[in-house]
Specification:
homodimer; alpha/beta; two-stranded antiparallel sheet; 6 helices; 25% strand
Chain lengths: 173, 173
């Protein structure tokens, strides 16, 4: 079974609060088991933890003040998502065929040079500027066979509907 | 040729500034031709316009104070991306086979009921809470055959690299 961790670097407090929250929730929904966030606002941790508590799963969100050490001590293949990298489509099969666990690095605006140097792969989901959230979703969706259709068996769950908002709450029903 | 427009609703000034910017940049990079944003901060428009000016393409970003009218007057199939909708994977082929232009609606946290009512499809990229940016990327990547590998022929372009940041600037080189 594919195991994937995410490292979010370059988070700027306040400014990146919501984007980093989206990165973490995407990581969870698409099947990562853990995200490390360098110097996060406490509100980011709190709001992601609330989603985990309500919607289930054993996804972990962990702050770090030493992202470089996370990379160096990781036994996984290190894949840095960057618009400057080689085309993801050219490398996706190669990465899958490694059969190894993956540490995906997701940067904010500027990424320090050590990230490029320590990564096993510097990979681009397109070479246009867009969003690390979009890149993460595409990468995980292609690397992970189940991806966004995972079942989390949480207290809250959505009842899919063609027409309206509908949720089941095990604490109430 | 597939033609896709995006409508971003529920944008909350200041709070959603960066997320909405990511929505717009993802729309552009994945091949949409236009995004409408309800009541955007002027900074969102400005920063997306700067990317268009530098990196090319004829993507348009337009503010609107009447998103409902945009939907009503659109001749396209209206697809609302929502975690409460039917599974995207079950509807993707059906939507592609329509061969029609598409208006994708991307909401922020709470979406008014009229969006569900006016949409031809309410579709979920997974029923977990994650990110409208991730949902947009997955939807466009599946609906659009070229998606994030589009060529924009802009002044600035990335030279893909396995090891470092490298850009070509036609104004300098």
């Amino acid at each position: 079974m594919f195991s994937c961790e995410i490292l979010r670097i370059g988070h700027r407090p306040e400014r990146d609060k919501r984007v980093t929250t989206h990165v973490a929730l995407t990581a969870r929904a698409f099947g990562a088991r853990r995200i490390y966030i360098s110097n996060p606002d406490s509100r980011v941790i709190k709001s992601v933890q609330e989603v985990i508590d309500k919607f289930g799963g054993d996804f972990e969100i962990l702050p770090t003040d030493n992202p470089k050490e996370i990379v160096k001590k990781s036994g996984s293949k290190v894949i840095h998502l960057t618009m400057f990298g080689l085309p993801f489509d050219d490398k996706c099969e190669e990465i899958k065929n490694l059969g190894e666990d993956i540490l995906l690095i997701v940067g904010a605006e500027k990424v320090p040079p050590w990230v490029f140097e320590l990564a096993d792969y510097n990979i681009a989901v397109g070479n246009q500027p867009h969003s690390e959230i979009a890149a993460l979703a595409i990468a995980m969706n292609n690397l992970h066979p189940i991806s966004y259709n995972l079942d989390f068996s949480g207290r809250l769950s959505v009842i899919p509907s063609a027409t309206h908002r509908n949720m089941m709450d095990l604490a109430k029903d």
